[in-house]
User: What shape does this take?
Amino acid sequence: MTFHAQINGYANPARHAEGLYIGGTWRKGGGIAVMDPSTGEKLAEVADASVEDAMHAVDAAHAAAAAWRATPARQRSEILRRWFQLMTQHAEELATLIALENGKALPDARGEVAYAAEFFRWYAEEATRIPGEYRHTPSGSHHIIVDHEPIGIAVLITPWNFPAAMATRKIGPALAAGCTVILKPASETPLTAYAMARLGEEAGVPAGVVNVLTTSNPGAVTNAMLADPRVRKLSFTGSTGVGRTLLAEASKSVVSCSMELGGNAPFIVFDDADLEAALDGAMIAKMRNAGEACTAANRFYVQAGIHDAFVAGLTARMAALAIGPGYDPATQCGPMITTNAVRKIDRLVTDAIASGARATTGGKPLSENGYFYPPTVLENVPADAAIAREEIFGPVAPVYKFVTEDEAVKLANDTEYGLAAYVYTQDLKRAMKVGKRLETGMLGINRGLMSDPAAPFGGVKQSGLGREGGVTGILEFMEAKYYAVDY
Ligand code: NAP
Assistant: This one.
């Protein structure tokens, strides 16, 4: 029996090709093919929303808004909590579905489902703890009361690399805050979003509170929604290029924007680092999702004294990874999302090698079916190579040698991005000192994984605006209202 024949329950792609999810009903349609990146074959076809469909989704979100806003926080919390439980109950099916449409290895897919579900649990808790403020003015003139109100209808746009977690990281706080939403998932991975909508329905999310639409025309569809005065929030996760376009579009109607954009994370290893721990961390920071993560270590800066041992250790670990379809339980490195993604990686690696870098393992795309690129380590990479400036988004680890702390900090900051960074040293004082100088929204110290629903996730510079998760994440979906009170 082939793997595909064993798929059932929520893992079955055909089950999520029922159409757009608007106002609690499924509107039949087709037009967008969803591919299996492991084989290049079609998995299913989902509906292609028009601008008119998108406006129906805004109508549905608007119709549901007043009742949802008025729903007691405890009740909203319990719906989110049930959604968390249902995701947990169906975790293996969801992980299989993610592995099918995204290609990531099953352990990564299982990790994503657990992480994604946690946003519902976390925001189920936060829903009942929305903060307010009471102060006296310094002059004694009056009293200040600050309330937080739901911002209004939110448009949520998500990428393909974490099809479940990027959606729950937005839906969780939005629903907890009292907002209704329209989710537009990436065209490559819409099945997970529709599967989650079904689970939401089961959890008791009222019709119209969460709407999901897929479209082959994201620009026109999003622009129309942003131009509607009922839409007050855009929460986007994706590339910096598309983020810039959306910020310009949102400015026309002054829509509040949260932006989680691209990264170019430096991974700095000092001579005094624990080598084995640094290698373990490097493998996680580089190879989670086969390198297709915004927080992926994109540039390894390794001090001269530990450089050769680090390159040898990383090469051995990368060369040992099993490559294959994400849903094969033996796979550790799945395919890339598209052939275009493989082409981009190939261009960056070829350019680096032409500029003097050497591949100690990998270095060329694999010629099998599917969109595979092998785990690759590059040494002797020039600091100004294109691969140092662009997001690789693949299983390639370029290593650069440095001598002084100042040099490492200067190289690490030499990018328009500022999402994540990693530092390995056994001297915590040095780590904190270097951390202060790094232009980054998040820093892993002797740790290759930082994502956690309880922590504020986000970047500085052109990596984004605002934070998701943590205790402040809910405020991205709220407006402060100030009451000046005399009594
Ligand atoms: P992308 O090309 O920017 O697409 C992201 C989403 O935007 C997709 O749903 C896409 O729809 C949609 N989109 C594209 N053009 C649009 C437009 N003109 N108007 C409205 N929506 C539009 O990014 P991606 O390739 O999917 O994801 C990879 C990028 O996301 C990387 O740069 C990565 O670093 C970043 N990322 C950041 C974070 C973070 O938290 N900072 C997390 C994950 C990923 P279609 O699929 O239909 O084109």
